[in-house]
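User: Please predict the structure of the protein below. I'd like the answer in structure-token form so I can feed it into my own downstream comparison script.

Assistant: Understood. Taking the following sequence of 337 residues as input:
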Amino acid sequence: MTEPIGAAEELAYELLLEHPGGTLTELTAAWSGPGRLPPVLERLVAIALASELPGARYTAASPDVVAGLLDGQEAALDRAHAQIQHLADLHRAARAGANAHLVEVVSGHHAVRLAVTQVLRSARRELCCFDIPPYGQAEDTADTDRELLAAGVRYRCVYDRAAVEESGGLREIEAMTRAGQQARVLPGLPMKLYLADDRRAILPLPPGPDGEQAAIVVHAPILLDALAKLFDALWDRAVPLHLPTARTPAATTQRVTDIDDDRLVVMLLSGLTDEAIARQIGVGYRTMQRRIAALMTDLGAHTRFQAGVQAAFRQQRASATEGTGGAAAGDTHRGDG
């Protein structure tokens, strides 16, 4: 199966296009991506997106190769979606009384809340989540989420863009990342999902016309494997939310010059519209447009996405510098995973 192309690989490939035949020393000097460059170059060579030349020089493969690799990833994602369709078919069969040992359908507020809590608390190693509004009362899992993080369970969550745009949504995500959650954002998630250790999963369903809540609990290993593959594929495509580790709550009368750049960068990378960002920050639409334009000018960026990436790299380099200084004084720092 073709390995997914991550953000670091994309940046390294662009670097090779800008510096054809560059030496490792030259490329390292120009590298501004996450992590160390040599392992990233090794991965590019391994998936045929780059070639190592004599003298420790590197050159990028033709963009046609990239297109072929992306086609392979699209095909893999299509297969994962097909497995999810199979899951939906099994759900319908389960409601008719068949395959009850593969999936379980629960309905009603109390039953769904109990099932969600049971799946979450069954996680011992990792919990994976797709978070999409609207939310029912049975999906209030904040206390359980924090218990899992406190117990050392790795928690990865992909938030739909609508979840970030919701009033107060970003503040709730910030609170979870401060507790240790790894968060990313991607528009158009296919469903809500909690997946515990690839052993149990639950898919809360949208409320019915009468407001009735329901969920699918998945037990079958083949379906759990399909859900895990789908989660990993969309996790790789999602944009990381590198949120501030600590901040002072913003006042509703916040001036544009007081807006936290870290917070603004998160929303730029999330792809939020200017209107949505203005609502989250608590300032006027035109004020926010001027603030974004000023940030882009300061960063030398031509697009909103470039501004987000450049600001994120600047923050990462600053954190690395602080970490180095602290280590010299005897402190140790661990970066955001």
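That's the full token string. The first helix runs from residue 7 to 18.
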